């Protein structure tokens, strides 16, 4: 007789329905009865926290994660990941393709989830001490050997701006008032000093990295959550553009040196 094969996970426990091993009678997330105890009582961000951290959040932690989720829910059409989803949507691509486009473009080290990963590593290494931050920000090599190319700028900072974006500034100021936002409060107070050392302003990725680290997530978990939390806006914009169609979408124009249309006309 073949031994019963099991999926090993500490996150989820399912009780099968008697007589039907493919149907679930009860589901538990880190010991909590999802449909019997949590449904109708817990918020979505509390479920996210429980899934990733393995414990229920305190009220201040849930509020911090909810504020961050709201701020990141729609990066807007100027964001490359949302624009990628819009391109897919206006071209008639499937829902999955639109989301995959947003994930692919939003996963990188230029304002993407991988930059949040590196910024969270800085937080874990430097904490709320200005001296190690100063040393880390003055290092020219911000990356490590991996499948990713070397970072060409300091993670959590914006190499293409003269000052911190107003929306990122508003988010930082709001999150810093949360009692569990220790790094956020320190970042708000030390912003001028950090930007002077880095030679560039803070970015939204730096604010998000501080909040995710305050919530106790690892860099890997923060990277995954940053990808996840930004998908609602990409999805909504993709659906909107799908309805509008490609004729009103501002595709980039190319100046061709050997335009085939002109050659045919000639």
Q: What are the defining features of this structure?
A:
globular; 2 domains; 266 residues; mainly alpha; 7% strand
- Derived structural class: mainly alpha
Strand order of the largest sheet: 1-2-3
What's the shape?
globular
Radius of gyration: 22 Å
> Could you tell me the strand content as a percent range?
5-15%
Question: What report would you give on this structure?
Answer:
This protein is mainly alpha-helical. It folds into 2 domains: 12-41, no CATH class; 67-243. Helix content is 53%, strand content 7%. The chain has helices spanning 34-38, 44-53, 59-72, 80-90, 95-105, 113-126, 130-137, 166-175, 182-198, 204-214, 219-229, 231-244, 260-265, and strands at 12-17, 20-29, 32-33. A 3-stranded antiparallel β-sheet has the order 1-2-3. It is globular and about 70 Å long.
């Amino acid at each position: 007789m073949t031994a019963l094969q099991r999926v090993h996970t500490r996150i989820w426990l399912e009780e099968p329905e008697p007589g039907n091993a493919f149907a679930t009678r009860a589901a538990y997330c880190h010991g909590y009865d999802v449909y019997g105890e949590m449904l109708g009582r817990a918020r979505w961000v509390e479920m996210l926290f429980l899934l990733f951290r393995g414990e229920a959040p305190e009220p201040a932690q849930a509020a911090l994660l909810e504020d961050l989720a709201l701020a990141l829910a729609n990066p807007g059409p100027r964001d490359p990941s949302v624009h990628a989803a819009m391109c897919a949507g206006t071209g008639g691509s499937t829902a999955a393709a639109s989301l995959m486009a947003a994930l692919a473009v939003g996963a990188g080290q230029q304002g993407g989830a991988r930059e949040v990963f590196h910024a969270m590593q800085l937080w874990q290494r430097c904490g709320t001490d200005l001296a190690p931050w100063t040393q880390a920000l003055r290092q020219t090599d911000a990356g490590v050997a991996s499948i990713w190319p070397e970072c060409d700028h300091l993670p959590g900072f914006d190499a293409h701006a003269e000052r911190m974006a107003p929306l990122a500034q508003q988010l930082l100021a709001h999150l810093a008032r949360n009692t569990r936002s220790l790094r956020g409060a320190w970042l708000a107070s030390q912003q001028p000093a950090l930007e002077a050392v880095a030679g560039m302003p803070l970015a939204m990725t730096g604010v998000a990295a501080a909040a995710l680290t305050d919530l106790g997530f690892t860099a890997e978990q923060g990277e995954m959550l940053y990808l996840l939390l930004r998908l609602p806006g990409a999805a909504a914009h993709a659906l909107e553009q799908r309805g509008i169609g490609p004729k009103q979408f501002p595709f980039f124009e190319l100046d061709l040196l050997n335009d085939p249309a002109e050659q045919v006309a000639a």
